Amino acid sequence: MSDLVQLTKDKDVAIISINNPPVNAIGPAVSEGISQAIKEITQDESVKAAVIIGAGRTFVAGADIKEFGRITSGKTARGPGLLPLLRQIEDCSKPVVMAIHGTAFGGGLELAMSGHYRVGAPGAQVGQPEVKLGIIPGAAGTQRLPRLAGVAKAVEMCAQGNPISAQEALDSGILDQLIEGDLLSGAVAFARAVLEKPVPKTRERNQRLGTLEQNAPIFAAAREVARQKQRGMIAPLAAIDAVEAATRLPFDEGCEVEKKLFNDCLFSEQSKALIHVFFGEREVAKIPDIPKETPIIPVNSVAVVGAGTMGGGIAMVFANAGIPVLLKDADPPALDRGMEVIRKNYSSSVKRGRFTQQFVDERLRLITPVLRYDDFDRVDLVVEAVFEGMQLKKEIFGELDRVCRPGAILASNTSTLSIDEIASATARPEAVIGTHFFSPANVMRLLEIVRGKNSSKEVIATCMQLSRKLGKVGVLVGNCRGFVGNRMFGPYRREAQFLVEEGASIEAVDQALYDFGMAMGPLATGDLAGLDVGWRIRKEFRHLEKAGTRQPFAEDRLCEMGRYGQKTGAGWYKYDESRHAISDPELADSLRKWSAEAGIPQRKISPEEIVDRCILALVNEGARILEEGIALRAGDIDIIYLNGYGFPPYRGGPMWYADTVGLNKVRDHISEFHRQHGELWGPAPLLRQLAQEGKTFAEYHRSQNMTAA
Ligand code: 3H9
């Protein structure tokens, strides 16, 4: 038997333990081991029943995701998969009880459903999350789940991919019993109790499959939800088709339909992109020169300076994680307003059912509004979140240096300014770091952690670990203007404006990028974020612009007119009281007039050109960032764009997308834009190099680490 599966006995009950740390992912060796164990217990007359359980922290978290890349790249031939094993278990003449703790996900739940019974620890979760990887269940999950849980539950789980709790699994018929206390002994006792009963085969349980009339509205509603919530994704619709096949066809034929749909999805670009995202999200936590053992500074109390939109949101993030926060603003009305906004946000979360009133009351008790720095000597971490102005930030950091205890972390939420210059206002630059939250801070998952040239490894490791505790994806970035996200967003939004100035309508620009998969078009995004923010930054940095290079003018004009976006009721669009965007023909006329005055010829611009101009501007800047070591890996840039800028996950992020287009093509396209639109479009040297070598961004590894940048 394989080392990954052990067979032991508790008198007449065999115990098959799967032991493939960290998550007992099921690959050919595990599958072979279980199969061998089932053969042995079938022949062993002293065994009357079996329990299959996961060793360590979990049952089986799914098939081994790394295998998929090997199959699609042709490195491994696709084997028989799990289906024969699951049938072997189901056909075992002795009752097989699946004992579930941790997570039974994907292939893990499919394995569990092939058993005759399932018991679970109260904290366990089960799910078919395959769609999040761009595939569908591939081991009869779409066929067995509706037979156990009913069609509506199965279609929801397979199409949306979210896990359910053990209690919900019990209520819906997936689990037969919850086991309080020791799971293994409970499962063994359960096995003894069913010894005399027949062994129910899930594949033969057709009672919950419903009728065509009952199921039609369920599938129609599921497709509608998938089209809206998972816009552009293939897998959710395929998963629904597969579950539908379970309701229309005999089990084996249903499995054939599932197999075909699974293969289509597995070989799709979407699945490759989403698997890249899965591993990329885990890879960002790994910093080459900061070992796992780096000491972590305990963060048990925090202070936030500035009670504006960002400061208030950041205070909520800490409170939500159970960490007490001082929220400081020197201006009493601003502090009152900040607290009021926090209360409003929490009460709308209660109304929407996201939080209970009790949770919110507890969180609010953790936030203490203060006007002075009096208690700052007791906090472990301070996040400064005042508006973007170097002078003000330096004054604050000078003050923090005086009042905070030695060892406290001093972080700035700046979105553009130099962390090193901010740190120079203190006598402890090793304690200074950037923690760039995204608006609204309590909602957006991204946290850019900005490494200053002196930031200590302990401070960096602490912030990386803290990001997880806060429910954020922390990505370490180097120090430069705009860091990774905003630095790339500049050229992206610049091109969107240029396109409007060259004759594309505002709506056409936003629509093309929305259709590409972006959560929002770039101009509508500007209206949401506030056009004045960029305007203020542009004014601060105007002296750095190279004379003679083309600069967009439209947003400056809008700001001069007081059109700052949603908050002033008008920006690129007009807004009604419920902030619905309305096209503004007068603005369209003004744009034509301004363009004529600037001598910009007007032309018809295709949606393809709009997408290329904007997305390739992201990619070109991303290549520079990568070469400079401002991002550690192309995948880190992708994770930033997926979690902070609404880039569609099924395209894998801008750098992955460029790799899928082919860097040769990308370089040629950018060179063409260079010829047409001038020096802003010079192809990044790294892009040229990789294209020349026939390589991808994903293959690029910098030899020096980030601090050398
Ligand atoms: C499937 O099952 C298809 C089937 O229908 C069968 C078709 C034939 N494979 O997330 P963590 C690694 S598709 C390989 O940090 P946590 C992960 O990369 C699969 N590796 O821990 C990481 O490695 P490293 C359906 C896996 O406690 C380490 O384990 N299943 C897999 O925060 C720890 O992971 C899923 O989609 C895997 N399946 O969360 C479940 N899973 O340390 C995917 C994890 O080197 N997994 N790793 O960075 C998860 O959702 C979470 O990992 C889990 C644990 C909740 C299990």
Name the features.
single chain; 709 residues; alpha/beta; 2-enoyl-CoA Hydratase, Chain A, domain 1; Rossmann fold; N-(1-d-carboxylethyl)-l-norvaline Dehydrogenase, domain 2; 8-stranded mixed β-sheet; 19 strands; binds (S)-3-Hydroxyhexanoyl-CoA
Radius of gyration: 28 Å
User: Largest beta sheet: what is the strand line-up?
Assistant: 12-11-10-13-14-15-16-17
What structural category characterises the helix and strand content? Answer: alpha/beta
- Contiguous low-pLDDT stretches (5 residues minimum) are none
The CATH H-level homologous superfamily of the largest domain: 2-enoyl-CoA Hydratase, Chain A, domain 1
What is the multimeric organization of the chains shown?
single chain
CATH topology of the largest domain: 2-enoyl-CoA Hydratase, Chain A, domain 1
How would you summarize what this structure contains?
This protein has 709 residues and is an alpha/beta fold.
Could you explain how this protein is built, in words?
Helix 1 (about 30-45) links the parallel strand 2 and strand 3. This protein has three domains: about 5-265, 2-enoyl-CoA Hydratase, Chain A, domain 1, CATH 3.90.226; about 300-475, Rossmann fold (3-Layer(aba) Sandwich); about 490-560 and about 585-700, N-(1-d-carboxylethyl)-l-norvaline Dehydrogenase, domain 2 (Orthogonal Bundle). By secondary structure, the chain is an alpha/beta fold. The protein is built from 29 helices and 19 strands. The mean pLDDT is about 95. The protein has an eight-stranded mixed beta sheet with strand order 12-11-10-13-14-15-16-17, with helices on both faces. The longest helix is centred in the C-terminal third of the chain and has 22 residues, at about 605-630. Helix 6 (about 150-160) packs parallel to helix 9 (about 210-230) and helix 27 crosses helix 28. Bound molecules: (S)-3-Hydroxyhexanoyl-CoA (3H9). (S)-3-Hydroxyhexanoyl-CoA (3H9) binds near residues 81 and 82.
